[in-house]
Amino acid sequence: MEPFLRLGTLRNILFPETGRHVPFTIENHAYVDGLGRETVSFVRTFEFGGGHRRRFDATMIHVPGVGVVDFLGTHQHLAVALDVHVVDGALDIRSTTFANATTTQRRSTPSTSAWSTLASVPFSVTTAGSSASSPSAPPRRW
What we know:
It contains two helices and eight strands. By secondary structure, the protein is mainly beta. It is globular, with a radius of gyration of 16 Å.
């Protein structure tokens, strides 16, 4: 599993390090993407000590008929449909479907009907000439 996790570090999707009480920062940027969708990008930076940092990047949109979709990594290579609910006063987020944006492969987790709809979601969440992590309009920081 570690080689797979290490591969994810190339695009800020996964990493093999683990730990407790790992300091981290989250930068959130809200904007309207090039397709007119309200979009939020999340850049999470984890400090593992000794100057060793890892990032996990995600860009989130709402897709009618699917719900919330996260595009993961620096180039949004992986799309994940999320089921978001409040359960006993807590936010419950579960992945339902994922798709590799570089191929036409789609996979469903058990008990989902969103697979075919996610397959039709445009993967590009970029504004003209820029990426989700550096939109052309100044991002709002939260």
